[in-house]
Amino acid sequence: MWLEKAPPGPVGFIPAASGSNDYPRHFAEYMKAEWDREVETIPIYRARDGRRGRNSERILEVAAVYLGGGVTDHLLEAILDTPAAEALARKMAEGGIVVAMAAAAQCAGRLARSIFKGDLIPAFGWLPDGVVEPNFDPAHDRRLRKMLAGAGVRFGLGIPASSAVLLGPQGVVELVGDAFRIEGAEGDIEVM
What we know:
- It is built from 8 helices and 12 strands.
- It is of the alpha/beta class.
- It has a 4-stranded parallel beta sheet, sandwiched between helices. Strands 7-8-11-12 form a 4-stranded mixed beta sheet.
- α4 (53-61) runs parallel beside α6.
- The chain has one domain (2-191): 3-Layer(aba) Sandwich (Rossmann fold).
- It has helices at 2-5, 22-35, 47-50, 53-61, 72-79, 83-93, 103-106, 142-148; strands at 11-14, 39-41, 64-67, 97-100, 111-113, 120-122, 130-134, 155-159, 164-167, 173-176, 180-183, 189-191.
């Protein structure tokens, strides 16, 4: 589990994808009850929050950052091309932990799928030539294959709801459960 790899200290929670005031509270209660870890909500809901220097500082200070699920477009609108995005990338480059759940996981790729029209939109690019499909079912791969047809995309990761893909420094990949990889829009589905 990702939390076992995190150093001591609070976990930073960014609620931008959900916009919910309840999600941070529920997440904090869960982390305290199950793992005896404190949670600090990093209040990024809109782009102006992503531009606030204090929020970037918080990202770098916490033991790990958890990007909650919700709406892909909301997360990207709040963080993409802001100092917060730079802080997240820096945290990972320096060996820190950034957890991306559901819609946030999709944002890790070069492109993500807009929930509003289904169009492909620029994402964080942590996988510079890859895309991510959370809640993936290999029997229904149409959405992932559509993203694989996007410009500059070479591969896709399909991550079922019960699984996780942990990406580490120097290309280290760890799996929890099954995950799938497809090379190119016409490629075969491979179990990782």
